[in-house]
Amino acid sequence: MQVLVRDNNVDQALRVLKKKMQREGIFREMKARRAYEKPSERRNREDAEAVRRARKAARKQAIRDGLIAAPKKKLIPGRPGARPSTPAAAPK
Questions:
Q1: Could you tell me which of 10, 33, 14 has the C-alpha nearest to residue 22?
Q2: DSSP label of 79
Q3: How far does Cα 33 stand from its chain's mean position?
Q4: How many whole angstroms separate alpha carbon 30 and alpha carbon 11?
Q5: DSSP string for 11-76
């Protein structure tokens, strides 16, 4: 895994690296390898993960098909497309 450091901004490069590691599942794997996991526990965990993935895929498909309503998107202040939090800051 490789991250470029621009303008000696190590903090930003570290944030990018952590985000990449999070997406790859490295933190989850490190946590899982801290202690021994019995084969039966591993099977149970993997089965539960498969059920979760299947439910998530079914939910997304139902939203695409219009069978259920999509969840409301949360507006984050400071992000593009976000509404201002105070009425005084609203453009006229």
A1: 14
A2: S
A3: 21
A4: 23
A5: HHHHHHHHHHHHHHTHHHHHHHTTS---HHHHHHHHHHHHHHHHHHHHHHHHHHHTSSPPPPPPPP
Q: Where does the pLDDT of residue 92 fall: very low under 50, low under 70, confident under 90, or very high at 90 and above? A: low
How deeply is 17 buried, as exposed, middle or buried, from its count of CB atoms within 10 A (0-12, 13-18, 19+)? Answer: middle
Question: Could you tell me which residues come within 8 angstroms of residue 9 by beta carbon, excluding any fewer than 6 positions away?
Answer: none
Count of positions (residues) in the chain = 92
Tell me the whole-structure pTM to 2 decimals.
0.54
> Comparing C-alpha atoms, which of 28, 30, 4 is closest to residue 16?
4
